[in-house]
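Annotated sample (chain length 410).
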Amino acid sequence: MNTLAAFRSALRALAANKLRSVLTMLGIIIGVGAVITMIAVGRGATERVQAQMKGLGSNIMLVLPGTITAGGVRLGAQTGQALSDDDAVAIAREIPEVQVAAPSLRTGVQVVVGNTNWSTSLFGSTNDYLEAREWPLAEGRLFDAAELQGSAKVALIGKTVAEQLFGDADPMDQVIRVRKIPMTVIGVLEKKGQNSMGQDQDDVIFVPITTYRNRIQGGNAGKLRRVGSISVKVQEGRDMKAVEESIKDLLRQRFKVQPGAEDPFSIRNLTEILQAQEASSRVMTLLLAAVAGISLVIGGIGIMNIMLVSVTERTREIGLRMAVGARGRDILTQFLIEAVTLSLIGGAIGVVLGAGATWAVGAFAGWKVSMTPESILLAAGFSAFVGVFFGFYPARRASRLLPIEALRYE
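Output written by the structure step:
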């Protein structure tokens, strides 16, 4: 019996017991669908973290004022000794592995253009901050040296601010009012998207740090030169941990921290945090796929069970085939093809089910999903393997029946 004839015979045998065949395939259908959906959800989570890493920039660390403890009570973040512009300069100058160290200040403001207003975040910083974040301009220019030193009333705006204040109009050289102070827009930043906390990074305005201190904060802010944070970008290929320790040692020296005393600052390795999130997402993807794969194994056990029943029911038929010249390998091929056919049909239905479930998760749950041809081939290939693996024993058992005993079977 050739393979085509065996395949036709398998289809006839499966069609003779339609309900039983459908119930047998159910485990494969659910398993394949679950594998495809779970891999799509896991890959979507991984891609989201990768997008956040790209939006953040590479090799980024954030230096923040630390906490202080008084009377056994921790008073919260940024209650310790303040950071200053000089600390940022020292980090960039004295640690060779540091590419840039950008001081920054931040607050919330209401921005007005004509009859339109918008609540957004205002950053006071330098051009180094945009270099650290790998944040290019979509149009316009960066701050020049005179503007950075002279508290110039100029601003760079994010895409969200541009859309909310100007719509389709060109924001370049337009005047916006920030806390009643007129600022000229000299540049629009490229779109960044959301960060790891779900916040819109494009909803932002940048002004020179001197402008922030002298025109937004006022008072003694310009004299004290304090900053809210320092964004440190490490050169590509450098050991982030080693650089972090170097920054820590430098700041402890500058702040004259005694051995064993608590650091009056904190350092957050943002790239390391997101890399850990990415690794967790990948592990979760594998875990979800493994759990879903259990359904395929259960489906395979169902196929083995039904094929054993089929061998018992068709014992006389097997005897007749052998009596008229069928060889053991012909019987083995026939029953193996039946098992694989069950698996492949179930796998095909499972692929359709998985695609539909993936779409539903993305559309109704709002999760980011990513279904790839590789995941479909993996699920379909595994379903075929299950058919071969669990169908082999019943097929081998059928092929080893003795014709005379098979013909006598009642």
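Annotation: Residues 69-74 have pLDDT under 50 and may be disordered.
Annotation: The chain is about 55% helix and 20% strand.
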